[in-house]
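Retry 2 of 3 after timeout on previous attempt. Resubmitting structure tokens to design endpoint.
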């Protein structure tokens, strides 16, 4: 069950939200694809600033602190959005339904390509899901590893993506065998971390992954990467998808986890903040304040 706990904020980093639809009550479906926005939420006040809007079907988001990189599912593109003035530039094209996006320590961009199911309407697309590396200086795209998808042709491909060090962590979602999967960025070698129930977004840090499970009641879970041990932090979430992690350093706790985890339940158009020290949560933004419009991707900046 959810336990409400209001505590003192432990970090001062703002949050970026990729909201997928410009009407709070829900979208019109996939035809035509929805329009969305990139929104920056102030870490202290919770006030929202629209950075850029009328973006075609934005899903996941990552930032280097200066620009945000946003995957556009239907158009098969990734755009950069200036956090200063909202200028939007296409940095990658001809991707097959990009979902999760992440940056490594060298500044390379990675994305999960998910050409599976009837939501992806691109006429030309890859035959199977994959993790792809993108050189932002040249635009060159490199295959890293194949990813698992449902074999029936229905939705069930990989979604969220996070990177720490030399490894990527991908939420793979084939029916009945979904998992959080570790992918070595140099060799492409894949290792299952833990079976999960329809995982969506994920964030990684401090030896742990924080993952949304969309199945059953909708949960935010904490996974110990070394053992695969799983702990439920929040449940009974309504349509959760995106996750972002903001760790505080130094941390006096034995497990080294201080800071906040953000999760976005789409059906309630809000972002929740789970505080790792206190073990409780609060509504960070949205809800009865200024509601979001179908929030998906989250990133701290």
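Retry 2 succeeded. Sequence:
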């Amino acid at each position: 069950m959810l336990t409400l706990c209001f505590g003192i904020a432990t970090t001062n980093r703002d949050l970026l939200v990729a909201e997928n639809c410009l009407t709070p009550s829900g979208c019109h479906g996939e035809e035509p694809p929805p329009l969305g926005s990139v929104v920056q939420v102030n870490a202290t006040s919770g006030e929202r600033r629209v950075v850029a809007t009328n973006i075609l079907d934005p899903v996941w988001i990552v930032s280097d602190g200066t620009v945000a990189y946003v995957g556009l599912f239907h158009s098969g593109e990734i755009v950069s959005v200036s956090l200063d003035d909202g200028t939007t530039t296409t940095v990658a094209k001809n991707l097959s339904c990009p979902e999760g996006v992440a940056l490594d320590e060298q500044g390379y961009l990675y994305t999960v390509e998910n050409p599976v199911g009837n939501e992806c309407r691109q006429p030309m697309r890859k035959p199977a899901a994959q993790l792809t590396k993108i050189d932002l200086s040249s635009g060159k795209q490199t295959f890293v590893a194949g990813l698992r998808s449902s074999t029936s042709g229905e939705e069930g491909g990989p979604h969220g993506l996070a990177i720490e060090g030399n490894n990527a962590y991908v939420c793979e979602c084939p029916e009945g065998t979904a998992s959080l999967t570790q992918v070595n960025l140099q060799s492409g070698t894949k290792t299952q971390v833990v079976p999960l129930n329809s995982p969506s977004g994920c964030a990684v840090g401090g030896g742990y992954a924080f993952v949304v499970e969309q199945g059953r009641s909708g949960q935010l879970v904490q996974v110990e990467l070394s053992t695969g041990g799983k702990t439920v932090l929040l449940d009974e979430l309504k349509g959760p998808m995106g996750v972002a992690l903001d760790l505080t350093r130094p941390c006096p706790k034995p497990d080294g986890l201080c800071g906040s985890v953000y999760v976005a339940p789409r059906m309630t158009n809000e972002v929740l903040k789970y505080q790792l020290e206190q073990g409780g949560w609060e509504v960070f933004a949205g809800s009865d304040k200024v509601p979001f419009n179908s929030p998906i991707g989250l990133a701290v900046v």
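Attempt log closed. Confidence is low (pLDDT under 50) at residues 1-10.
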